[in-house]
Design brief:
The chain is α/β, with parallel strands linked by helices and about 220 residues long. The protein is built from 10 helices and 5 strands.
């Protein structure tokens, strides 16, 4: 019986070998190469290649209160300088200091779509996971990068003011509320699937982001 138990354990162990994940240093090098080679920028441009034509066609309907929603981080503003400085890590106090500097550069292909939306007199709404305490720095950063014209800048409540809400729940709830205010959201742009899931948008555009994931 003891021999049989040992044999069973051995067979289970042999059938279920441990699997070592890819080395973290190698993955960081891959991400760095992707970000610096031009491939990332090319993929971003490809992800929004049809957006301007879509917005132009949709705006031609003359319908009132047509809105376009943009996420901010890794959608219209790039945090690559900060992420490289921190070796692709995330430390909330360091992140907060970076946001306060208001130095994130624009992601040009998406900024071009933003400008098209402005030129078409569509209601531009920024919907971000940043919090209310970061409003002033965020508005300053958007303005410095030529994106200071918009109808609304919607941020999360400060952590001390409301319980945490996952991105999908928060952003879909905001879109639903905007719809109840009479807006027709014709397009949403975001780098996370959680920016876009939950409905209340005619079309979604997913921007590449291999750097982090937000549920």
């Amino acid at each position: 019986m003891k021999y049989l138990s040992f044999l069973v354990l051995c067979l289970i162990s042999c059938a279920s070998p441990s699997r070592e994940p890819a080395n973290l240093s190698d993955l960081k090098r891959e991400v760095t190469t992707y970000a610096e080679s031009g491939d990332y920028q090319g993929d971003v441009a490809d992800s929004v290649a049809s957006a301007e034509a879509f917005l132009t066609k949709r705006a031609a309907s003359g319908q009132a209160k047509l809105a376009v929603i943009f996420d901010i981080d890794e959608t219209v503003l790039s945090n690559l300088p900060h992420m490289k400085e921190t070796d692709w890590g995330y430390q909330p106090p360091v992140w907060s200091k970076w946001v306060a500097r208001a130095e994130a550069p624009a992601i040009e292909p998406v900024k071009k779509v933003y400008q098209t939306a402005v030129d078409l007199d569509l209601a531009v709404i920024f919907l971000t996971g940043r919090t209310e305490e970061e409003r002033a720095a965020t508005a300053k950063n958007l303005k410095s990068q030529g994106m200071g014209k918009y109808e609304k800048l919607v941020l999360r409540p400060n952590k001390s003011d409301a319980p945490y809400e996952k991105a999908v729940a928060f952003k879909s709830r905001v879109r639903k509320n905007l719809t109840s205010e009479g807006y027709t959201i014709i397009a949403s742009f975001g780098d996370q699937t959680s920016d876009l899931e939950g409905g209340y948008s005619e079309r979604t555009f997913k921007i590449p982001n291999p750097f982090y994931k937000i549920p």
